[in-house]
Amino acid sequence: MARNQPFPVLDAVGLCVCLLSAVIVSTVPAYAQYAGALTNEKAQQAVQEWLAGNGSASVQDVQEVPAANMAKADVDVSDMAWLSPQNDAVTAYVMGPGGGRHVYSGHLDAIFAHYTDGSWALVRVTGPMGAYENLHVVVQ
Predict the structure, then answer these.
(1) CA distance from start to end of the chain
(2) How far apart are CA 109 and CA 123, in angstroms?
(3) How far apart are CA 41 and CA 92, in angstroms?
(4) Could you give the CA distance from residue 45 to residue 139 in angstroms, rounded to a whole number?
(5) Could you tell me if residue 28 is left (phi over 0), alpha (psi between -120 and 50 degrees) or otherwise beta?
(6) Model confidence at 15: pLDDT above 70
(7) How far is the CA of 40 from the CAs of 70, 75, 85, 109, in angstroms?
(8) How far apart are CA 126 and CA 132, in angstroms?
(9) Cα distances (Å, whole numbers) of residue 133 to 96, 109, 111, 112, 124
(10) 88-129, pLDDT tens digit by residue?
(11) What residues form DSSP beta bridges with 57?
C-alpha cells in the first residue's frame, strides 16, 4: 500500500456514513409530507358522502394517530335525521316507547382507517344516537 493512499477501511466507512446520511435526509421530507394526508376537506367529503344528503356536516379538526393507523375527526352536523327502534316492554316502561324519526344537530366523532396503500376510509361515526360501525366510505 502506498503511503499517500488513504486507508481503504476508512474510505468504506466514510462512504457508508455519507450514503446513510443521504438516505435519512431524503426520506424525512417525504414522510412528513406524504401525499395521502387526511385533510379536513377530504374528511368532510367522506362524511357528506356517508350522510347522503341527510343533513350537512362541517369537519372542524382531524387528528391523525400514525401508531394506530387511524384518524379522528371532530364533526359538526345539522339537520341529520335518524331513526330509533321501538323499545321493548321493559325499556319502554323506563324510557318511553322509543321509535320514530329524530333530527339531530350537534357534534359527532368520525373515525378513519389508514391502509398500507396510503388510502383512507371512514369506518365509524359516533354521537348521542349511538355508533354507526363497519362503514367503508373511501376518502377521495
Answers:
(1) 62
(2) 11
(3) 41
(4) 7
(5) alpha
(6) no
(7) 14, 10, 33, 13
(8) 6
(9) 26, 12, 10, 11, 5
(10) 777 667 667 777 788 899 999 999 999 999 999 999 999 988
(11) 77
Confidence at 4, pLDDT banded by 50, 70, 90: low
DSSP 97-138: -EEEEEEEEEEEEEEEEE-TTS-EEEEEEEETTEEE-S--EE
Contact 38, 114 (CB under 8 A): yes
> Alpha-carbon distance 133 to 125, whole Å?
7
Residue 16 C-alpha cell reads as 457508508
Q: Are 35 and 118 in contact (CB under 8 A)?
A: yes
Q: Is the dihedral of CA 41, 43, 45, 51 positive or negative?
A: negative
Q: Distance between CA atoms of 129 and 106, rounded to whole angstroms?
A: 11
Query: Which cell numbers hold the place of 13?
Result: 466507512
114 bridge partner residues: 120
pLDDT value at position 3? 55
